[in-house]
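Subject: Sanity check before I submit

Could someone independently write out the structure tokens for this chain? I want to compare against mine line by line before I put it in a report. The sequence has 172 residues.
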Amino acid sequence: MSNDGVVVDEAVRAAWDTYRVLEKRTPAKERQEAQQRVKAAADSVGREEVSRGTVFLVGVLTGYLIGEPPGGGEQFDPLTDLIPAVIRKLPTFDMADPEQVPMATGVLMAAAMGMDTVAWRDRFGPIEPREAIIHGFVLWLLADLFDSLADKPGTIDQLMRETFDSMGTSQD
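---
Independent answer below. Compare away.
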């Protein structure tokens, strides 16, 4: 595990790949490649580091949505709009463990308050697999909301892939 909220680049990329695996619009071949990258990253840097990457991306997307929502709409109030909307949708995922919702809510709150989500989450110890799954669902919900506001499916995926390309972390 890295220190002070720093996450290995490969883990952040793999965390985004977990979104691509969940996203039904991802073509089958790309989904399979994303699954392979997630497995390779988990083998290389560890499953927990990939989970920390997901927590990092939850913070990034939350910041986008409350700072400058896509489509030029009104800013979200994180406490009355964003966080409740995301948390209410978590039960729609069969694999979402309700016991993990408080930590996912905490990560969203930390992001809304401008805190480093990874450093905040790290204070509570290792991310267990059941918790990691729920952070992946939160990431997907935030990405879906971003695309809905942009009124164009795939907008956030394209933005994230361009960001990874510019950073030299793309593995496609």
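---
OP: Matches mine. For the report I'm noting this point. The chain has eight helices and no strands.
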